[in-house]
Amino acid sequence: MKEKKKFSIQWRVIAIALGCWMIPFVLMVGMMVHYILSNQMGDRVDNMTDQVNFNMQTSVERLNQAIEDSRDASYEGELRSVYEAYKSNDYKDYWLSGRVRGYLNTKYTNDPSFSSTIFWYREAPEKLNGEVYNSSAGGAYHQINTYWEYDHEAVREYAETLDTGIGFLDRDGRIYMIRNLVNRSFEPVGVLVMRLNTAYCFEGMRHFLNDFDMGIYLNDLCLEFTQDGEQENKEGMRPEEYPQGSTWEGGYLYIRNLVKENSYRLDTLVRIPKTVVMDSMYAYMRILGVMIVLLVPLVVFLIFMVRRHILQPTEQLMEGAREIQEGNLGYQITFEAGSQEFVYLTESFNQMSSRLKYQFDHIFQEEMALKDARIMALQSHINPHFMNNTLEIINWEARLSGNMKISKMIESLSVLMNAAMDRKRRHVVPLKEELQYVEAYLHIMKERLGSKLTVEMDISEETLNEKVPRLILQPVIENAIEHGVIRSGSGTVVLRSYKKGDYLYLETENNGIMNEQERAKVDRLLAPDYDTSKESSGNLGIANVNQRLGILYGEPCGLSIFQEKDDRICARLTIFVGLRAQ
């Protein structure tokens, strides 16, 4: 048997000293870090979420006020009366335009929600219209020209789709709020077009721009802002991909707020780096860092004391023992020990050495005959239980070093080894347990193949407790990966389960096209009278699976492989789960 490795007392003493002192200290520091991070992080996230919600509410209130202001043009009836007077008295076009411009100037020139406002009558939009702009809200005459040159036709077509409600239209980052003006018979007469001052309406949300990414969706319009406050239309973050409130993902905190009003829906997503969230906690981390740094000289002092008073006297005793072992009888230790225990041991050793020398000087050496003894060499086989326990130790070491990738792979390999050892001697297991072995195998294969391998699961809930033969799925999955994904360079493997009557069906689907030669090989391997002893080990998997199912359940149970689609191959396991199978 292989002799178990023994460690010196030096390392044992150091391990005991550090374990009894450093481990409690590290655990205490770890608990402090956990407490600080969990509480401070939670408060920080709550504060940021509240700030986002507050600024979002400000934007909602300003949008609501803008919509309310736009209703005045319909409810007050001034623009409708001007048009009726124009039609009844045959006034000139410039008279109508002047009256419209005067009304708009009174109502909207100083309204911070709009940078420009245009109203035109459907009869002749290019002639019968009026427009104003609000310079304090960023408006200018070129906005009027831009509207008539680039945006009017799109606005006119969009207005045709509106009834009496409010609509929003995006034209290369220019957001227009549009509503129809109707007469007393509810027939459209004109269209009110108001260019939103997004810098004002979303002023609260723009405060996040300095540090965070942000996506704002007004109905289906994606609003993004540059640092100077101008609005751009780009495809940004999609709020619908995240739940309401705060969510952690990939080192970022995502805060989503969705508000639904009668006239619009406002959906906002703010992405905050984790470093920003933890910024206020760095002071605590620095304190802990100082504590750890101060721990180093204490550890050095501990090692010095252990070596001076324990290890060096022990080494002197070991040196004396080696001298006597080599025949230097009467060897004396001259080291001055610093403790009573080692003084006693040193004096006792010196006396013993002197007595041995005296005895060997006065006693004849006797020949000692040793009987021949056969030493039977034991074949060293590694016990699977020992391998599994060793994997657990390696897994623990990987977790301690923070290498979760290796730890996960070891856990997956351990699951497969446990399945292979079959401690409980079970021939069948629930499907949900069999899927654990499959997931362990797939995890290892994903680490090997990376993004080349994609796995999709479609497992029926009612099948999870059905009994299946142990390790019946892994060879089929392996075959799908080897002959589908690896051969093609990349691909997707689909695993599904479902029941029909007294039968459970387990299917794997992978990329690939079977030619005639491969079809013949599959038929040969799955033949009822196929002799597996004549096959190479690389092809035993699916043949073994088919024969196991046939032996356990009889016809029509077994494995079938066929071309599902033009580029997909399906392997189907049929398992009887009726009363006779139970």
Automatic annotation (TrEMBL):
It is found in: Cell membrane. Residues 308-361 form the HAMP domain. It is a multi-pass membrane protein. Its main location: membrane. SUPFAM superfamilies: ATPase domain of HSP90 chaperone/DNA topoisomerase II/histidine kinase (SSF55874), HAMP domain-like (SSF158472). It comes from the Bacteria. The chain crosses the membrane at residues 12-37, 281-306. Pfam families: HAMP, His_kinase. Keywords: ATP-binding, Cell membrane, Kinase, Membrane, Nucleotide-binding, Phosphoprotein, Transferase, Transmembrane, Transmembrane helix, Two-component regulatory system. InterPro entries: Bact_2-comp_sensor_kinase (IPR050640), HAMP_dom (IPR003660), HATPase_C_sf (IPR036890), Sig_transdc_His_kin_internal (IPR010559). This is HAMP domain-containing protein.
